[in-house]
Design a protein that fits this description.
By secondary structure, the protein is an alpha/beta fold. The chain has one domain: Rossmann fold, CATH 3.40.50. It is built from 13 helices and 13 strands. α5 packs across α7. The protein is globular and about 70 Å long. It binds iron/sulfur cluster. Iron/sulfur cluster binds next to loops.
């Protein structure tokens, strides 16, 4: 099997100063069936002006992580441990009023489903303007002017007219742009984008990604981009974090992760992704099995029931011992395979390229 990921270079240079820092985050929910370990010891940093791509299947903990960063989790049913620091402010211990102030002002989120996120009862302009007024105290007139400016900024034609439209009068791509305008109206310095382009056709998808990059260049925004799509990661991310069963299983720069994966799960994701540039007769190889239940995750390496290489590790370690994520200069994978084994076993799989 051959996997190919075309990676457009152009990642931004790291400064080493995180704007968002997450340390040893655990997020557990109580349910009638038991405790769901949605996030289990996750750490990462995002710098201003850079994009971290978080990739993984549904239920891997990507979205829960980011709802927790924004303080949008259900506090009654959620037990959280760890540290989340945004520009010097510890978010997990911050009062709700402070979080509310920070949401919109310093951090904002773009969701997958714009229709569900926008109120059908208010015009697009009113929704953008009210967000602006709430955080800045601007007058109605100023806020409306700002809404028009933001709609223009995100490429809505005739924004001074469309500002009075309701969401149902916008196309899917325009609604997504309107939601981006609402998220960015207060110039947040952290933007969390949760599958923001999944529901859109590829042309609009590309336009939205261009727009986010432009806005990032302009405002120096730190972006966390959550997706299951490595094609999107290859276009958007500077750094990549691969999640499985609530844990980070691999981290590195975009080029490192996509062209030289170190974890069998990342390899599996790459193998199940079609390539427009490689040979057309290469069959896709979906990862066998399904993601584990987070109510009762498998012992040892949570990926071991699906891993093609588990038998290669002697002593049954994969089923019995949890692999640790050791990072060197931000690069590493949580896997018991040695570097030599990876070179040997993965050689046929990784012919991805940077171009
Ligand atoms: Fe596969 Fe074992 Fe590595 Fe887990 S630790 S990914 S089961 S080889």
């Amino acid at each position: 099997m051959t996997t190919q990921a075309a990676v457009t270079d152009g990642t931004r240079e790291a400064t080493g100063t995180p704007f968002l820092s997450v340390r040893d985050l655990h997020v557990h929910f109580s349910t009638d069936d038991g405790v769901v370990k949605a996030v289990d010891g996750l750490s990462f940093d995002v710098e201003a002006g850079r994009t971290l791509g978080i990739v993984g299947e549904s239920g891997s903990g990507k979205s829960v992580t980011n709802l927790t960063v924004l303080g949008l989790h259900d506090r009654r049913r959620t037990a959280i441990e760890g540290e989340i620091v945004l520009d010097g402010t510890e978010l997990l211990t911050a009062p709700e009023r402070e979080l509310e102030r920070l949401r919109g002002n310093k951090m904002a989120m773009i969701f997958q489903d714009a229709l569900a996120s926008l109120s059908p009862y208010h015009t697009v302009g009113v929704q953008i303007a009210e967000t602006y007024r709430k955080h800045t105290g601007a007058s109605r007139r100023e806020a409306r002017a700002r809404a028009v400016e933001m709609l223009r900024r995100v490429g809505i034609p005739q924004p001074e007219v469309r500002v009075d439209d309701y969401p149902h009068q916008f196309s899917g791509g325009m609604r997504q742009r309107a939601m981006i305008a609402m998220a960015l109206v207060c110039d947040p310095r952290l933007l969390i984008a949760d599958e923001p382009t999944t529901a859109l056709d590829v042309t609009v998808q590309a336009q939205i990604m261009d727009l986010l990059r432009e806005l990032q260049d302009e405002y120096g925004t730190a972006i966390v981009f959550i997706t299951h799509d490595l094609g999107v990661i290859s276009q958007m991310a500077d750094d990549v974090l691969v999640m499985y069963a609530g844990r980070c299983v691999e981290r590195g720069s975009r080029a490192e992760v996509l062209t030289d994966p170190q974890h069998p799960y990342t390899l599996g994701l790459l193998g199940s992704m079609p390539s427009l540039r490689g040979p057309v007769d290469v069959p896709l190889a979906p990862i066998p099995g399904t993601p584990p239940s987070l109510l009762d995750p498998p012992p040892g390496c949570p990926f071991h029931p699906r891993c093609a290489f588990a038998e290669q590790v002697p002593g049954g370690r994969c089923a019995g011992e949890r692999p640790v994520l050791n990072l060197t200069a931000g690069r590493g994978a949580a896997c018991h395979l040695t570097a030599g084994q990876r070179r040997e076993f993965f050689a046929d799989y990784t012919t991805a390229r940077v171009d």
